[in-house]
Write a structure and sequence with these properties.
It is a single chain. The chain is of the alpha+beta class. It is rod-shaped and about 70 Å long. It is about 50% helix and about 35% strand. A two-stranded antiparallel sheet has the order 1-2. The protein has one domain.
C-alpha cells in the first residue's frame, strides 16, 4: 500500500496544528553577550517570541484532515 503525497502533507499539517494549539508561543535566543559590571559578569540575552493565534491552528487541523481524507479516497 502506497501512501500518497496528500496524506503525508495532511499528517504534517495536523501535527503543526496540534503543536501550535498546545504551545501557542515559541521563543528563541537572538543575541547573547557578557558584560563586566562592578567586578561581576552579567549575561544579557535578547529573545524573539513568535505567537501562533488560534485562527492559525484550527485551519491547519481542518486542512490537514481534509488532505488525509482526500489521500485515503484516492488509494
Amino acid at each position: 500500500m502506497r501512501i500518497r503525497t496528500a496524506t503525508i502533507c495532511g499528517l504534517v499539517l495536523i501535527v503543526i496544528g496540534i503543536v501550535t494549539l498546545i504551545r501557542p508561543q515559541f521563543s528563541y535566543r537572538v543575541d547573547q553577550h557578557h558584560e563586566q559590571i562592578a567586578g561581576s559578569s552579567v549575561l544579557f540575552e535578547t529573545r524573539k517570541v513568535i505567537r501562533f493565534p488560534l485562527w492559525f491552528s484550527v485551519p491547519m487541523l481542518v486542512i490537514g484532515a481534509a488532505m488525509v481524507i482526500i489521500g485515503w479516497r484516492q488509494e
